[in-house]
Write a structure and sequence with these properties.
35% strand, 7 helices, alpha+beta, 25% helix, five-stranded mixed barrel
Length: 310
């Protein structure tokens, strides 16, 4: 039977996407059916064949990762090729999009053996710089400070890292949107009333950045791990050896699934190839004051030093 469901075509995360659910955050190019990489489908429970071992956490089979968001939807990510969404009572399309563009795409990238880092990536002088860190570290806030200084966002939340034909790590663009806490909006002097609050997170907002978005793949120049510290000033230090592996492992999006997906060895080799080409750093920011522009200045100086040594 030929499906009569309406399909939308998008490009994000370096992938051509066909979706039965509208995803207005994404770019909408014209894509021939033969060139689709990922299909996002909306199915009923009986036709989805999703089997959950528990309503909490992830159910992992060889080629499938499934999970439930209570009162919203069931999700299944299959073979790096399909995302199946089954609406439940209480379904909310905005909340569902957060999971599709976050958790689902992060898992799908891993299934395709593309490294998804958790953070923000900024384009500076022809190279991408990834800012990774734990939740609440200030990754998106720091990226927003770069945008305010005239630089462009490549990705926020899920950063896809691929390799070029000559084995250079490359960041693929995601889509032109940031997520910022209300405290950051206030510190930047941005009017909260202009932005849409994220579902269930009324103090975190969706910030469109279409005019400040780098929409092409770009070589990775370095990775900065952002952490909070007790010092009164910004500190930055180069990290070496095993610490680089720790940063990549700790800040892989949904990295807890690597073992269950049988991808630990792949992740180690992939990380080795990345660290062979780029440097990693740790940024320590004070928790007592607003310092993203100080961090921008420090990072730009590090970048200039690196370029002068090339």
């Amino acid at each position: 039977m030929i499906s009569t469901k309406k399909k939308y075509a998008y490009y994000a995360f370096g992938l051509n996407i066909s979706s039965e659910l509208p995803l207005p955050e994404l770019d909408c190019p014209v894509i021939p059916d033969a060139n689709i990489d990922v299909f996002i489908k909306v199915l009923g429970f009986s036709e989805s064949a999703i089997q959950l071992e528990s309503k909490k956490g992830f159910t992992v089979h060889k080629d499938e990762v499934a999970f439930e968001v209570p009162n919203t939807a069931l999700f299944s990510i299959r073979n790096g090729r399909e995302v199946i969404m089954v609406p439940l009572e209480g379904f909310d399309k905005e909340r569902v999009r957060l999971y599709i563009l976050g958790t689902c795409m992060g898992v799908l990238l891993m299934q395709r053996k593309i490294l998804p880092l958790h953070g923000s990536a900024i384009a500076v002088d022809g190279k991408a710089y990834a800012i990774v860190g734990n939740s609440g570290a200030g990754k998106s806030t720091l990226a927003s400070a770069f945008i305010n200084e005239g630089y462009k966002l490549i990705s926020d939340d899920v950063i896809p890292v691929t390799f070029s034909n000559n084995n250079i790590p490359v960041i693929q663009p995601s889509y032109p949107q940031q997520k910022l806490w209300v405290e950051s909006l206030n510190n930047f002097g941005m009017d909260v009333r202009r932005y849409q609050p994220l579902f269930e997170r009324e103090t975190k907002y969706s910030i469109p950045v279409k005019n400040s978005f780098h929409d092409q793949p770009i070589p990775l120049g370095g990775i900065f791990e952002l952490v909070k510290g007790s010092a009164e000033s910004v500190e930055i230090r180069k990290t070496d050896g095993l610490e680089g592996f720790r940063i990549l492992l700790h800040h892989t999006f949904r990295g807890s699934l690597l073992q269950r997906l049988g991808l630990k060895e792949w992740h180690f080799i992939y990380s080795s190839n990345i660290l062979r080409e780029i440097q990693t750093f740790q940024l320590i920011r004070p928790i007592s004051k607003f310092t993203p522009y100080d961090l921008v200045s420090k990072i730009l100086n590090i970048m200039k030093e690196g370029n002068s040594n090339d």
